[in-house]
Amino acid sequence: MIYLEDDQLEIHCPEVHDHARCSISFQRTLRIPDDGREYPLPPGLGDFPLRHLDDYAERLPEGRVRRGGVIMPMFQAEAMWLNFGGFSPYPFALKIATGKICAITGENWVNHLNTDPQDYIVLPDQPWLDGYCVEEGVIRQFVAMPLGEGYTVEEQLSGEAQHGGLQITAYPMKAEKFEEMMAGRHKEMSVDSMILHSPAEADMGLAPGGRMRQEIYEDDYGLDVWDQRHPARCFVTIANSTQWMAITGERPPIVPPTARHYTEAGLPWYDYYDADNEVVSGSEILKAVKSVAQIGKEKGETALPNNESVNGTRVVSIRDTRKRTVREYDDSEL
User: Fold this and answer.
1) Domain spans of the chain?
2) Which band of pLDDT confidence, cut at 50, 70 and 90, is reported for residue 255?
């Protein structure tokens, strides 16, 4: 089951194992320049707020209510990343799609796991996901854009603007495999181990933005360890700021600083490398998808305001995945 607590999705599969838990939060962040260069990891600037869709059923179209899940606000051209956490070491295979298109392979959504190519990420090995896996060690950032204008991955690959949002399915490791793994570990180890705008009516989806250095790790466990009989599923609807206020009566978070202002203030970007895990090769399908800036140029539109290249970034190498989140920052410095 998936429940909502403190603006995070908490996943618990007690029918599989009492320790089968993990969490997902959606991090506000800098939108990196969509200029063809590769950038380090931008910071987390706090969680996007999440609300139960069913709590506002009377204000929503029937189609949205029927698919359920949660709703969160994003400005047009705002960026985000997914943060995976929880205090349990229990492994999960996690499928992430935008507009029913897999963010790892670019294939259409299916309700099972595939390994050729691998269409899921493995927790807790994978600490974050910032975008679409386009090459080995490179992603294109998740950027919110309105459906119907041709920018989203869904529209580029399916030709339709139908679903939008994000789709998430979590598959816990089988209980017996987890117990075997933990027994083996105990034998081997000791215990201490931006000016943005939001159209009023358009539904929102996710489109590929700038290029970022991030590795998506291969599944070292193998397909047969995952319990595909007990998945936990959630649809995340994205509302623009006007829709969010109309639906919830709440103001959305303030827009984050631009990448240029953040860098000029001397604040850090991040680098994370795990030498213990192999990396997936990236999707040829997603590599061929055009970025927001590329489509905007073709259409003669300024799709990404404040898209200037950034130089002189201060990059901090981290091993503790919690240190990437910068929950408090002083707007006056930016």
Assistant:
1) 2-333
2) confident
